[in-house]
Input
Amino acid sequence: MIKRCAILGASGHGKVIAEIADLNHYTEINFYDDRWPELQSIENWDVLGNTLDLLSLVHQYDLVVVAIGNNKIRLDKVDLLKSAGANLTALIHPSAIISPYSQLGEGSVVIANAVVNPFSAIGNACIINTSATIDHDCIIGDGVHISPGANLAGGVKVGKSSWIGIGAQVKQLIRIGENVVVGAGATVLHDVTDSKTVVGCPARPL
Output
């Protein structure tokens, strides 16, 4: 049986998504990117068109994934594809551990060795990156990126379109607002309000 996957965004992240799709037994994987027709291929895969082309073809694919790092753009593209009727089921690497008591939103991706523990809820268009851990009862808003090796303790809330940097640590019950950037390796011990960038150990606003 042929399983078809379309990936919007021919990027390094897109290569990771393509491999996960392959591991999930998608037999045909096609890329779309707004740099087409200048960009015709990425590694082993063809780039067949741009966003408008994909919108007209979404019903031909069993799964559509947006592989764009920018949180706001990724969320906007997921919303656009959803309105066109695309299947945006969450894509999960086989090595990831996802509690059956957790929730994953549409268009979200969970990458190798990540863990999502019980009663956590992941929003739409999120990236839970390599070896990130999300403990029990966390709430992750739409369009959030939890970077490789980041660890969220229990009961953390992260607002829409925020970015938790590589190797960051977030203490239990912390509230992180919308459009926040938590720097690489930061240790978050206090709540962070909307649109702040925090860095360091303990994390402080820039």
Summary: The longest strand covers residues 4-8. The chain has three helices and 24 strands.
